[in-house]
UniProtKB/TrEMBL annotation:
Residues 3-322 form the Glycoside hydrolase family 29 N-terminal domain. One of its GO terms (molecular function) is alpha-L-fucosidase activity. This is alpha-L-fucosidase. It comes from Victivallis vadensis. Keywords: Glycosidase, Hydrolase, Signal. Its EC number is 3.2.1.51. The lineage of its organism: Bacteria, Pseudomonadati, Lentisphaerota, Lentisphaeria, Victivallales. GO terms for cellular component: lysosome.
Length: 422
């Protein structure tokens, strides 16, 4: 199945990197409160001025191998790179538009090409983010207008160097830039695992469908997220940082931030702790949903040190407990638990396992309504330790957690199941 890798992967790295990373949320001494990659729109910076940032883009510490190594060591299985965000600046070599990282910056290298070469070495699938609709640099880029409810009250148009016809001549942008650039991306970088689209505000149903056809034709195995618009796509994108209430039908993913922004901001220090990130990962895993966790690299091309610290911890945890996340299915109980999360590991030809990921230690945990019999229960540790359990009437299973688990970060307790009459 072409999507199998995605449902097993569970954890990916999102990367937002572009000209906006240089000012990092500060423009002429003023700070923005919104997400960093929206700098141009928030300060209504004319293209000539914003584009001048390109002359300063020279990230001497950029190292695609290092990025991929960090992702792999964090336990991530795929990476999605912002090849073009809403500012319209291509972070790859585009022959279609010279407003790109190779032609317009002293850096002169193609980070996407370097990432495409590095990803397979670190067992990562490559995904490409492309803002198919909003493009603030192209005179005909998408925008349904500030009054449109689709714009959620954000008035990013019209009083900046934003022609009044913007959005109405979307077709010109679509045919002249979006389709040719997507063709470049789908033909120039080897196998692409995901085309990640975003913010379908202006695009018509026919145009979204046209992109889907293009992707299918050029990269039949590539997955498309539902933010392509109009109900198309192979898997669902939840809203940013959104947690599903119950396991959904089909394949889903939640993109999330490590602090409060996607693009780097100098003054955003509101970092999630490793425990918070792991709780989110586990809570998504028990809803059969992938977690695409964002990194906003700094202008010099390195990852913020706090990011690296957190990711190192997620990697350590996944190295030990990854069996409870990768390839596992959703919590089979009709409820969630205040102590943590449950996943199911189906093992073809072998006994099914339930994994309890303990966020808050309890001396005793009770599970009601389990159809199967528990034949074994242990805490995954070194060495593996048996955990006491008992069954009372009404199919109530009591698990007594050993005290030493209290000090562990999200420890996992596993139950092996057998059919009642087996
Ligand atoms: O507007 C973008 C935003 O900048 C960022 O890229 C996120 C990532 O999911 N998507 C949009 C908002 O949902």
């Amino acid at each position: 199945m072409r999507a199998q890798w995605f449902s097993e992967a569970r954890f990916g790295m999102f990367i937002h990197w572009g000209l906006y990373s240089i000012p990092g949320g500060i423009w002429r001494g003023r700070e923005m409160s919104y997400i960093g990659e929206w700098l141009q729109a928030c300060f209504r910076i004319p293209n000539r001025e914003y584009g001048a940032l390109a002359a300063r883009f020279n990230p001497e510490r950029f190292d695609a191998e290092q990025w991929c190594r960090t992702a792999r060591d964090a336990g991530m299985r795929y990476l999605v790179f912002s090849a073009k965000h809403h500012d319209g600046f291509a972070m790859y070599r585009s022959r279609v538009d010279s407003y790109n990282v190779v032609d317009a910056t002293p850096f002169g290298r193609d980070p996407l090409a370097e990432l495409a070469a590095a990803c397979p070495k670190y067992g990562l699938k490559l995904g490409i983010y492309y803002s198919q609709d909003l493009d603030w640099h192209h005179p005909d880029g998408g925008d349904p207008g500030p009054e449109s409810p689709k714009n959620h009250g954000m008035s990013w148009g019209n009083d900046w160097d934003y022609p009044a016809h913007r959005g109405k001549r979307f077709r010109r942008y679509f045919e002249g830039k979006a389709i040719p650039q997507l063709t470049e991306l789908l033909t120039g970088y080897g196998p692409v695992g995901i085309m990640w689209f975003d913010c379908p505000l202006t695009i018509s149903r026919e145009e979204s469908g046209r992109i889907v056809e293009l992707v299918r034709k050029l990269q039949p195995d590539c997955l498309i997220n539902t933010r392509i618009g109009h109900g198309f796509g192979d898997y669902g994108s939840y809203g940013d940082n959104q947690l599903p209430a119950a396991p959904p039908e089909g394949m889903w993913e939640t993109p999330g931030t490590l602090n409060r922004t996607w693009g780097f901001k100098w003054n955003d220090h509101d970092w999630k702790t490793p425990g918070e990130v792991l709780s989110l990962l586990a809570s998504l895993a028990e809803k059969d949903t992938n977690y695409l966790l964002n990194v906003g690299p700094m202008p010099d091309g390195s990852f913020p040190p706090e990011t690296v610290r957190v990711l190192r911890e997620t990697g350590k945890w996944l190295e030990r407990y990854g069996f409870a996340v990768y390839g596992c299915g959703a919590n089979p109980f009709q409820c969630s638990f205040d102590w943590g999360y449950v996943t199911v590991e189906q093992r073809p030809g072998k006994r099914t396992r339930l994994h309890l990921i303990i966020r808050e230690f309890r001396p005793e945990i009770r599970l009601y309504g389990l159809e199967e019999v528990v034949v074994r229960c242990w805490a995954a540790a070194e060495p593996e330790c048996p955990v006491e359990f008992g069954c009372s009437g009404g199919r109530c299973l009591t698990i007594r957690l050993p005290e030493w688990l209290r000090a562990r970060l999200l420890p996992v307790v596993t139950l092996e199941l057998a059919c009642r009459n087996a």
